Each structure stands twice: as C-alpha cells, then as structure tokens.
Give the backbone structure.
Amino acid sequence: MYRDGKVRAVVYSVGTADPGVSRAASDRLGRRYVAIRFDDLAAAFREGVRAFWKDVHADPARKARIDAAMKKWFALFPTDEAFQAMIEHEARKGTA
C-alpha cells in the first residue's frame, strides 16, 4: 500500500472531540490524514474480538486448532473461562 501511495497518517480524537475538525484541517492543508475517534476504534476492536471468539466456539475443529496454537503463546487464563467471562459481562450490559 505504501508503494501505491494509499497509506495515510492517522489522527486520533478522544472523548467528545469531533474528528471532523481534524478531517477539515487535513483537507485544508492538503494532507492525507484519516481522523478516527479512539473510542470508536476501541469499540470496533472489542466487537471484532468478541465475534471472532463466538465463531471459534461454534466450530469445534477450528476451536481445537486455535487452542493448540494458543498454548504456544498464552497461559494462566483458559480460553473457555475468558469466553464465558466475556459472555457474562456482555449479558450484564444487555448486549449479548
């Protein structure tokens, strides 16, 4: 992407800051920035992880492969317990 000129710098806004202000400044300066609210990025990442684990747990063969690979990288907190904790947390929030 870099060689094709498609890479852009990222400008983050936090809290109630409006990313549109950064976009407008980028346009006026002729720069190739993309403005992202950090809270939105974090929420999208969290949702992606949740969806991934939901899919993994729906496919026993895939789950077995993931569990085997994870043993090389992670320890101390079993995947099933983490997934169950996430489900319970989401249920308490009413978003499961």
